[in-house]
Amino acid sequence: MTENNSNVKQFIIKNYLESEVNPDFAILVNGPWGCGKTFFIDNLLKEKYGEDYRKKEVIWLSLFGLSEIYQVQKNFLNYFILYLLIVLRNLFLML
């Protein structure tokens, strides 16, 4: 791992994952296709939380091919609605 990646990891852990208040920002990982963006975040979460990291509430949002803010908003809203439906389903199954 490069020193820059280590610094980014520490920033994300300290200011996002270990924050005592909900952060009011998202994390954008930018780079060409196939450079390891998802791999980087996936491993960071695995390192921080162990094998249970997949149980964390993470929204993976791809901006690939989007060029307008309304497209980003629509994409996020779609993911958010899907997340809410999953939560509601899980609550219903607990009854």
Number of helices: 3
Largest sheet: none
Rg (C-alpha, Å):
15 Å
**Low-pLDDT windows of residues:** none
Instruction: Kindly give the count of domains.
Output: 2
Taken in chain order, the helices and strands follow as HHH
Structural class: mainly alpha
Which characteristics define this entry?
95 residues, mainly alpha, 3 helices, 57% helix, 0% strand
Give an account of the 3D structure.
With 95 residues, the chain is an all-alpha fold. It folds into two domains: 58 residues, no CATH class; 30 residues. Helices cover 57% and strands 0% of the residues. The chain is globular and about 50 Å long. The mean pLDDT is 84.
Give me the secondary-structure topology.
Layout (H helix, E strand, L loop, with lengths): L2 H15 L19 H13 L19 H26 L1
